[in-house]
Structure formats: C-alpha cells, structure tokens
C-alpha cells in the first residue's frame, strides 16, 4: 500500500489500470463486433 503513496505510485496505478482495462476493452469490442457481424450475416 505504501507504494501507492509515493511518486512512483501513480506509475504503478497507471500500469495496473492498463493491464486490467486494455484486455477488458479489447474483449468487449471483439464480443460486440462478433455479435453485430454475426447478425449481419
């Protein structure tokens, strides 16, 4: 927890957000695109 209170804490939080959110957003976009593409056919 102390790591978050230091100046480096911001970098740690940002890196964790990237590793958690990027895959989630990619999966969500793929699922949405797959559903739309599947319906189009």
UniProtKB/TrEMBL annotation:
<keyword id="KW-0812">Transmembrane</keyword>
<protein>
    <submittedName>
        <fullName>Metal-dependent hydrolase</fullName>
    </submittedName>
</protein>
<keyword id="KW-1133">Transmembrane helix</keyword>
<keyword id="KW-0378">Hydrolase</keyword>
<feature type="transmembrane region" description="Helical">
    <location>
        <begin position="18"/>
        <end position="37"/>
    </location>
</feature>
<dbReference type="GO" id="GO:0016787">
    <property type="term" value="F:hydrolase activity"/>
</dbReference>
<keyword id="KW-0472">Membrane</keyword>
């Amino acid at each position: 927890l102390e790591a978050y209170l230091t100046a480096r804490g911001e970098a740690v939080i940002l890196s964790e957000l990237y590793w958690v959110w990027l895959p989630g957003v990619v999966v969500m976009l793929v699922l949405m695109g797959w559903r739309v593409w599947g319906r189009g056919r």
